[in-house]
């Protein structure tokens, strides 16, 4: 992991997420597919999830470190914005754009802004705007940075479904993805007998929901498991896409 002011080798992919464990749940298989192929992947979390009903921030930070190691991340950062009060404001857009310019990823992943959790909505909208901002030479020069707009940007599925633009085959890494999610042990442990984890925001246990969902999307592409991604507008194709 890097501290904010280290000189950082560019990443192949950067994942923006609202809370620790979001990246693991929604795109952990895609991350593992990339890191297994030797690609440098980083995750930038906007909050530490300190308002979560289960666990506390210190426990979650230690769990996050274990999960990052399982995913094989080259870098993980946290903007330390207030959990459950994340706002898509100009400061968040600037912060995200600065990290995009510093980390120079070829691919940006961020939450689809249609979601039941307001923090996911805020992170998703801010990331869309930051992607555009990071490519503005005049803005970047004012920040002492070189402009960089990742050539590809995809959105990840949170609590609500969308029609995917593509599904990543995660069959070979699915168990490791679940291990990364299990590293957040406090999130899978009821705080008392009344806490069954069922509410409208996130009905049922996270591990089960993620497992079932990945099997469903995998089935759509003839794979055991898969993760859905949304691309804003048509994906360009050339002869290589047709095999
Ligand atoms: Zn979340």
User: Structural class from helices and strands?
Assistant: alpha/beta
Q: Which ligands are bound?
A: zinc ion
Q: With helices defined by DSSP (H or I, 4 residues minimum), what is the helix count? A: 7
Major sheet: size, sense and barrel closure? 7 strands, mixed
List the secondary-structure elements in sequence, H or E: EHEHEHEHHEEHHE
- Which residue ranges are poorly predicted, with pLDDT under 50 across at least 5 consecutive positions? none
CATH architecture of one domain, by name, is 3-Layer(aba) Sandwich
- What is the overall shape? globular
Mean pLDDT: 91
**What is the β-strand count?**
7
What do we call the CATH homologous superfamily of one domain? LmbE-like
The top-level CATH class of one domain is Alpha Beta
Radius of gyration (CA) equals 17 Å
General description of the model:
This protein is α/β, with parallel strands linked by helices and 243 residues long. It is built from 7 helices and 7 strands. A 7-stranded mixed sheet has the order 3-2-1-4-5-7-6, with helices on both faces. The chain is globular. The model has no long low-confidence stretch (mean pLDDT 91). The structure holds zinc ion. The site of zinc ion has 5 residues, from loops.
List descriptors:
243 residues, alpha/beta, Rossmann fold, 7-stranded mixed β-sheet, 7 helices, 7 strands, binds zinc ion
């Amino acid at each position: 992991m890097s501290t904010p002011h280290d000189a950082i080798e560019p990443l192949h992919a950067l994942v923006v997420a609202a809370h620790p464990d979001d990246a693991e749940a929604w795109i952990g298989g895609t991350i593992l597919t990339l890191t297994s192929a030797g690609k440098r992947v980083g995750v930038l979390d906007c909050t530490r999830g300190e308002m979560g009903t289960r666990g506390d921030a210190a426990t979650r930070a230690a769990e996050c470190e274990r999960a990052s190691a399982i995913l094989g991340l080259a870098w993980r950062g946290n903007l330390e914005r207030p959990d459950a009060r994340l706002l898509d404001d100009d400061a968040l857009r600037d912060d995200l754009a600065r990290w995009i310019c510093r980390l120079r990823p070829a691919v940006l992943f961020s939450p689809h802004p249609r979601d039941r959790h307001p923090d996911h909505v805020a992170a998703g909208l801010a990331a869309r705007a930051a992607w555009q901002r990071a490519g503005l030479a005049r803005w970047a020069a004012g920040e002492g940075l070189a402009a960089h707009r990742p050539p590809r940007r995809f959105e990840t599925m949170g609590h609500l479904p969308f029609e995917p633009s593509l599904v990543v085959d995660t069959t070979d890494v699915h168990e490791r993805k679940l291990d990364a999610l299990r590293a957040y042990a406090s999130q899978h442990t009821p705080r008392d007998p009344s806490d069954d984890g069922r509410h409208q925001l996130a009905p049922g246990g996270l591990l089960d929901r993620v497992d079932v969902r990945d099997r469903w999307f995998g089935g759509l592409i003839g794979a055991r498991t898969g993760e859905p991604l949304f691309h804003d507008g048509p994906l360009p194709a050339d002869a290589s896409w047709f095999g």
